[in-house]
């Protein structure tokens, strides 16, 4: 949610402002040539159905609605800290990266701020979901820390070869990880890593395989879809240590709270519903049918208006 909701280049930022032009007026001339002109209204009519222009208008609307409702709760430091992290990540290429995305530093800051406003609204809504039933469900599904060793490989045949060695009675799994694993975060430590069912350090398939093993057990080759299309990665897991799960839910209350909130914040349908509620409460009305569809996903069909009164 938070990284993709408002992602993308704002390359047609001026388009939305042109929507204010009266349809009975051609507006100012944008381009003149011998015997003809291109006016603001002509330009608006031409580009308003462009998906990028529609996304700009949606982003601007979300920004205005959420700024009014939550703006006092997000300070500039949060935005500047995120910018600092990006500058550290991209170094001297940061300005070029922004430019390629159709952004300036200021429009990027505005984008980050809007994203944080939405995140805050979603977090507040998610906290209302911290019911006894939610805690019980999270507790039933929770597996506490295990310590395992993993070997990640990019080739299935190589993985099968390493698996055969790993299951040998005299196998040194840690050395196999150091010599063969492509996971730079763990290989130097013999593939060792500690995680629970809420962790994101390893793929879900790997976690499930580890949880199903007995101590010192070695999994079969686990195939995991890679981050690039049509690519796969292959894991072998050895379980080193299990933590006994307490029967007392209170022992995990803070961990379970994080689990519940994270699941809600990563639930696209939940996020969409929160945005929809805020847009409806702001009494959004779409004045041009060209923009109808981009709001329908949040506030339904019809005239895209809400009978709710605006929040003060």
Can you give a write-up of this model?
There is one protein chain. The chain is of the alpha+beta class and 312 residues long. Among the domains are: 56-128 and 266-299, no CATH class; 142-243, Chitinase A, domain 3 (Roll), CATH 3.10.50. Helix content is 48%, strand content 12%. The protein has helices at residues 13-18, 40-47, 51-70, 76-90, 94-100, 105-127, 132-141, 156-166, 173-180, 204-211, 253-265, 268-281, 292-299, and strands at residues 29-33, 36-39, 146-153, 192-195, 222-225, 232-242. It has a four-stranded antiparallel beta sheet with strand order 4-3-6-5. Strands 1-2 form a two-stranded antiparallel ribbon. A hairpin with a 6-residue loop joins strand 5 (222-225) and strand 6. The longest helix has 23 residues, at 105-127. It is elongated. Residues 1-24 and 302-312 have low confidence and may be disordered.
The gist of it:
With about 300 residues, the chain is an alpha+beta fold. Strand 1 and strand 2 form a beta hairpin.
**Could you give the order of the helices and strands?**
HEEHHHHHHEHHEHEEHHH
Which percent bin holds the helix content? 40-55%
Question: Pairing-aware structural class of the strands and helices?
Answer: alpha+beta
Main beta sheet: 4 strands, antiparallel
| pLDDT averaged residue by residue | 87
Stretches where pLDDT is under 50 for at least 5 consecutive residues are 1-24, 302-312
- Spatial order of the strands in the main sheet? 4-3-6-5
Radius of gyration, whole Å: 26 Å
GO biological process, one term: protein folding
Catalytic activity: [protein]-peptidylproline (omega=180) = [protein]-peptidylproline (omega=0)
Enzyme class: isomerase
Keywords: Cell membrane, Isomerase, Lipoprotein, Membrane, Palmitate, Rotamase, Signal
């Amino acid at each position: 949610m938070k990284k993709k909701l408002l992602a993308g280049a704002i390359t047609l930022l001026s388009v939305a402002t042109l929507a204010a032009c009266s349809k009975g007026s051609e507006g100012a001339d944008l381009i003149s040539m011998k015997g003809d002109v291109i006016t603001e209204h002509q330009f608006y009519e031409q580009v308003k159905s462009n998906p990028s222009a529609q996304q700009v208008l949606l982003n601007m609307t979300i920004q205005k609605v959420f700024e009014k409702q939550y703006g006092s709760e997000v300070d500039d430091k949060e935005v500047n800290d995120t910018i600092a992290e990006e500058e550290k990540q991209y170094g001297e290429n940061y300005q070029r990266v922004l430019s390629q995305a159709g952004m300036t530093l200021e429009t990027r800051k505005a984008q980050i701020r809007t994203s944080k406003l939405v995140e805050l609204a979603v977090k507040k809504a998610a906290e209302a979901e911290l019911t006894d039933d939610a805690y019980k469900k999270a507790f039933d599904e929770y597996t506490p820390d295990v310590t395992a060793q993993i070997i990640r490989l990019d080739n299935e045949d190589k993985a099968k070869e390493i698996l055969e060695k790993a299951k040998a009675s005299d196998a040194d799994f840690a050395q196999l990880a150091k010599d063969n694993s492509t996971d730079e975060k763990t290989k130097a430590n013999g593939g060792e890593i500690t995680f629970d069912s809420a962790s994101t350090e390893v793929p879900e398939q790997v976690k499930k395989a580890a949880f199903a093993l007995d101590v010192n057990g070695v999994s079969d080759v686990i195939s995991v879809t890679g981050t690039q299309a049509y690519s796969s990665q292959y894991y072998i897991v050895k379980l080193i240590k299990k933590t006994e799960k307490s029967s007392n839910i209170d022992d995990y209350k803070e961990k379970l709270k994080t689990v519940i909130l994270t699941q809600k914040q990563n639930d696209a349908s939940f996020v969409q519903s929160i945005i929809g509620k805020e847009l409806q409460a702001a009494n959004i009305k779409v004045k041009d049918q060209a923009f109808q569809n981009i709001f329908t996903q949040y506030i339904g069909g019809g005239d895209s208006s809400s009978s709710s009164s605006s929040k003060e």
